[in-house]
Every structure is written in structure tokens, then in C-alpha cells.
Here is the input.
Amino acid sequence: MNKKLILIFIFFVSVIECSFAQVDQSPQVGIVEHLGSTIPLDLKFINDKFDTVSLKQIINKPTILSFVYFDCPGLCSPLLEGLGDVMKKTDLVLGKDYQVITISFNYRDTPEKAKEKKTRFTARYAKGNSDGWIFLTTDSTTIYKITHAAGFITKAVGLDFVHPSAILAVSPTGMITRYLYGITFQPIDFKMALIEANKGQPRPTIQKVLLLCYSYDPQGQRYALDVLKIAGILIVFFIIVFVLIYLIKPKKTNNNKN
Here is the structure.
């Protein structure tokens, strides 16, 4: 291997390391997946019936976790509507085959607000099984522990928050098995996430790969195309192509001197 090829190889490796280092940085707002990790089941909350309960008491079947706050002006209501819509479309029975737990990450939210939200959404989406969708509130310390364990990163801005939009599938033993991103969900993805949760089988989602090209926009409270990440990926792609062409292209011989 000649010196020129060695230099190209070193440059190629350096660019890849820099690109993926940028992707792997923990975001200020977003999701850091903790697939296979177990959420702390001893944490205590107040439910929509004003009872103090631990997660260990209520997580006894495949569970969908969602994190919202009740006065959210942006993503939270569309997320719950998207969750409710896919619940109506699935053939799994809420409260029997699975349950949904919605946790407020705003310590100012009260059990009264939780009850109001539950009444609103279960009336539209629970198909008569309102006990299968539980709304919880708690104190700031517990909020930090559960969101940190779930990899759900928010940022307070005044009385509001910027935050990601995703739901988590959790096994009956509290293991995180799947993340589903966005505010709408496909019934097949939702059902498979619950089946995997029931088996305790963590599975990555293709949406995580797609989000490598997106960054969270705090002002618009949505995921926006990240030009810098795309440019970095394209640079790496063209370097790979260049190196492959250099290696495969036959060297010219100078046999026509005579």
C-alpha cells in the first residue's frame, strides 16, 4: 500500500469518526434510547383516582408509556390523539392485552388535571375500557428519575417545555423494549411493539435511523431536516465512492515507449 493510499485511508477514517461523534452526542432535547433497561418500578405517583401508586403496582402487562404535560400548547394533545387513534385501530383489547400509562413531566400538573385529560381522551378512544388508560402526576424529583430512566429529555422554557414526541413499549417487568416516534403510529408497529413487550424482547425501530437526518426544533416543537448532518453523510458517501474507485480502477501501464 503506497503512501498516498495510506493518507486517503486515514482521512476517510477521521471523517467517519467525526460524523458519527456528532450523531452520538446526547441532545439537549430529544430521546436517548435505553432499550433493554428497566425503569425504576418503586417510583410513586398519584393516579387519576387520587390514589398514590407505584409503577410496580400498576405495570402488570405490556404497557405503552407516554410523557406529556397537560397545558402543552404544541405536541402533547396531537400525541395523545395519535395514540388514541392507533388504539382504536388495533385488535388488541385495552386493559386486557395491554395498558397505557400517561405521565405528566410538569410537577405543577395536578390529579384534577389528570382526571380531566383522562375523561376527555378515554371517552373518545378507550372503547369502553377507560381503566386501561392511566394518567399520573408526581413531584419534580420523581419526574426526573422516570424521564431519565426512559431517556426522555425535556427543557423548561418559562412555564412551558420543549420536548420530543414518542411513546415507549414496556414489558410487564418494566423493561423498555421499543420506542415509537412521532404523533401518529401505524397499527402494525403498535401491535408488534406490544407483542415484543409481552415477550420482553427489545427491538430497535427504523425511525431511529431516519431521525439521524433530523434535529428537534424547539421553537416549532417538531423534527426538522438537519442540513449539517445530511452534508456530513454525503461527504462520507462520496469519500467511500472515491476510495473504491481508486482501489478498483486498474493502473495505467506505459508500454508504448518503443
Q: What stands out?
A: Confidence is low (pLDDT under 50) at residues 15-24, 207-226, 253-258. The longest helix spans residues 3-24.
